[in-house]
Write a structure and sequence with these properties.
Chain lengths: ~120, ~325, ~150
């Protein structure tokens, strides 16, 4: 389904991408390309990006996640980042990256809950 | 000369170029003093031994101070070091190297356990002996003698300040080590209800403790998959901008994980201070009482506290 | 310790390790080495993330702004605990307004951001030597918490 090393699964009307590799330009490009292609193909309204395997997230990755969410939004899909590790949250906050504008949830389940509430028109956050 | 681990006093006391310059300025040590002292170098070399003997005569006369110099070898060594110390006063160069050297001297005294009262008493004697010798040296020229004493006195006081600082730094270092151990025991995260956690913060929150609190809280939130994290600050004695910053960093990090935070225990004075300081508390629920925070947390997870219906046999 | 880590180490496991930063993937190499070292020496998860992220940020700066440079990693010991020192050097354009960069003045929202002020907060020591036309040299240190 995906051309790059980041697998994208379809869960009903939601897409689930699980990041388990070190991120750099070619991987990121492939990922964003794959995500948008999938959204277009399936018309999905929600994207969950699971970062539970990432032990660190630098500004490059933070920007990449934010941009991916923006791209998905333009195509009608809400994005939720799930599984952030304690050390990642601490590092981002200490660096001053508050990732405003990105929705996060503790787990895949909560991410799905958020997306379904969102689709029902419930006010989020 | 370095054996074993010695704390870096320059670092603990923040003695950088800037700080050294400020001190020299406050003690009014000028280029003129430096030049005067350099010109007195031969005076120093001539009299240092006698002055040192005079100092140690006092020290060895009193049982309190005598115990630090138990044998002849030790006494001989410290007298040599005392001479070197004295001569350095007349070096004319009082920058960071000089300060570093004086720190080592102070640290050595602290390390052997000599109490400040003896250390300062010795300095008093030292200054008196130097005064005597200066008077003799300048005989007729009283004005010059006064100027020379003034310059030396400035430097002696400068040195004493550094000596006191090393004592303080050593105590601080010990306290820090103890505090580290206490800190480990002082972040009890409590599970109030399924997916609702509470951390009552009691005591002062310095940077190191704040880091530890954030880390413990984040780990617990993920481990317990908490939806709500309550931070009660009723037990924090002083909430200034720094403390508020620390606490808000933690709440921001919890929110980044995808959980909500509630700050409770906000007293009237804290509310006043926070607003007056211009601290912005965004996206964090706040309540003055912990009980209110718990009620709010429960409502967030879809629960509420209700009165129990009276039992049949209580009617 | 995985095979990749072992093959990267010099004569002993004490380092120092040198990595040229010439391609974007070299950033990953630096990051992975720092991660492996901090894990091998049992830094806590927060310190691992902090050092790995700092290494990533600074290597990326070298690659993006100077189009290349080098990283050197050293294992430190001070009698009480161990630490890691990371050195980044490049012959790039240098930073003109260092105070502004350290205060976070350079935007970190776009790709020209330097993230220096943020990185500084992740480590115990941060030293920078830079000037327009003289390249940049950054040294950071972080010690393992002992208690």
């Amino acid at each position: 389904m995906a051309s790059g090393p980041i697998p994208i699964l379809k869960l009903g009307s939601i897409l689930l991408a699980t990041i388990q590799v070190d991120l750099h330009d070619t991987v990121v490009d492939a990922f964003q390309h794959d995500v948008l292609e999938e959204i277009e193909k399936t018309g999905s309204s929600g994207l969950i990006v699971d970062i539970s395997a990432l032990e660190s997230v630098d500004s490059y990755v933070a920007r990449m996640l934010a941009n991916t969410a923006k791209m998905a939004k333009l195509m009608g899909s809400e994005t939720v980042i799930v599984g952030m590790r304690p050390a990642v949250a601490a590092t981002l906050v200490r660096m001053g990256y508050l990732m405003s504008g990105i929705t996060t949830a503790l787990s895949l389940q909560e991410g799905l809950e958020f997306l379904s509430n969102n689709q029902n028109g419930a006010v989020s956050d | 000369m370095e054996h074993g681990f010695r704390p870096d006093y320059m670092k603990i006391l923040k003695l950088d170029e800037e700080e050294c310059r400020r001190r020299l300025d406050f003690f009014e040590i000028t280029e003129e003093d430096a030049q005067r002292l350099v010109s007195l170098r031969s005076f120093a070399e001539q009299w240092t031994q006698e002055i040192t003997e005079g100092l140690y005569e006092l020290i060895m006369r009193h049982p309190d101070s005598r115990i630090f110099f138990p044998d002849d070898a030790t006494l001989a060594r410290v007298k040599r070091m005392q001479n070197a110390y004295f001569l350095k006063l007349f070096s004319g160069s009082y920058g960071m190297d000089y300060v570093r050297d004086r720190l080592l001297v102070g640290a050595a005294h602290e390390r052997i356990g000599m109490p400040p009262k003896l250390y300062l008493g010795a300095y008093r004697r030292y200054l008196a002996l130097i005064h005597e010798k200066l008077r003799d040296h300048f005989k007729s020229d009283k004005a010059e003698s006064v100027k020379a004493l003034a310059s030396i006195r400035k430097l002696i006081f400068f040195d004493m300040a550094i000596a006191i600082d090393t004592y303080i730094a050593a105590y601080l270092e010990t306290m820090t080590r103890h505090q580290a151990a206490i800190r480990e025991l002082s972040t009890p995260v409590i599970k109030v209800y399924d997916r609702v956690l509470l951390l009552p913060i009691v005591g002062t929150v310095d940077t190191q403790r704040a880091h530890q609190i954030m880390e413990t809280v984040l780990v617990q939130v993920v481990d317990q998959q908490a939806k709500v994290m309550i931070l009660d600050i009723a037990g924090v004695p002083v909430v200034d901008t720094k403390v508020a910053d620390h606490i808000l960093q933690t709440t921001a990090a919890v929110q980044l994980l995808g959980a909500q935070t509630i700050l409770t225990g906000i007293s009237a004075s804290v509310a006043r201070t926070v607003v007056q300081l211009g601290v912005e508390i965004k996206r964090v629920h706040t309540r003055s009482k912990l009980s209110e925070g718990i009620e709010l947390a429960l409502s967030i997870v879809g629960k509420k506290i209700t009165a129990v219906a009276p039992r049949k046999d209580e009617v | 310790m995985n095979a990749a880590f072992m093959s990267r180490s010099s004569n002993s496991d004490k380092g120092p390790w040198d990595i040229r930063i010439e391609k974007e993937v070299d950033i990953v190499a630096v990051r992975q080495l720092v991660r492996d070292l901090t894990k091998a020496h049992r830094f806590d998860q927060f310190a691992i993330a902090a050092l790995t992220t700092a290494a990533s940020e600074l290597s990326r700066n070298v690659w993006v702004h100077a189009k290349g440079g080098s990283a050197r990693i050293l294992l430190l010991e001070n009698g009480k605990t161990v630490g890691l020192e990371l050195q980044f050097a490049d012959q790039g354009p240098g930073i003109a307004d260092l105070n502004r960069a350290l205060a976070g003045g350079y935007s970190t929202a776009n790709s020209l951001g330097l993230g220096l002020s943020g990185t500084k907060r992740l480590v115990d020591e941060f030293h920078i030597d830079t000037a327009p036309g003289r390249g940049t040299r950054i040294v950071i240190r972080k010690w393992k918490k002992d208690f």
